[in-house]
Amino acid sequence: MRKFILTAISALAITGAVAATASANVAVDNGVGYVGKGDVQTALNWNNAAFDKGAGSLKFTAGAEKVIADYKMSCFNGSTGAIDTAVSHQIISQPGTTTITATPVLNAGNGKQITGFNLNGATSGFTVTAGGGASMRTVPCPDGSFSYMNLGQGDLFGKTQVTGDLKVNNVALPNTPVEVAPVVPAP
After folding, report:
1. How much is the pTM?
2. Distance CA 50, CA 41 (A)
3. Confidence band (pLDDT; 50, 70, 90) for 181?
4. End-to-end CA distance of the chain, in Å?
5. CA 91 – CA 72 distance, rounded (Å)
6. What does each C-alpha distance from 90 to 8, 76, 145, 184, 186 come to in angstroms?
7. For residues 97 and 170, is the Cβ–Cβ distance under 8 A?
8. Contact predicate 154/141, CB 8 Å
9. Cα 166 to Cα 100: distance, rounded to the nearest angstrom
10. Rounded to an integer, what distance in angstroms lies between the CA atom of residue 91 and that of residue 26?
11. Within 10 A of 32 (CB to CB), how many other CB atoms are there?
């Protein structure tokens, strides 16, 4: 029985190590970063031959939004009666997707085999292909405070940003989701 338990624990440890390795090479921030060859192969269920054959047809995309309006609001502290230095935002945005530009990284030893991809897309002003109706979300005031007065246009007005997981050929890559404020449906 002891040998079986140790074997099972060893198998779990190995499985955990393999799973951790699968997402270890994905490091993306707003569409800029690096994706390893193994992560693409895992996502698409490709072996080396399939990867070598299909590498030229890969398309990287991510969920994105274009901010239509950003209303900056003052925060009023209900406990102290003071105007808080923090501000809240009411953001109306158009959700969609964007294409992420990927440059193959070649093996330093032979200069031929692709070892991964540098992602250089999703910089300021990238194109968002609409994918649904506009939505509104709130970036709230700190706890104990509430929004009370419009201060005018916020910094995000007209900006585009990545808001969703990175995909290759419409299959999600094993990366950390992008944090965005909770979405509140428009009335």
Report:
1. 0.66
2. 9
3. very low
4. 62
5. 9
6. 52, 16, 15, 10, 11
7. no
8. no
9. 9
10. 29
11. 16
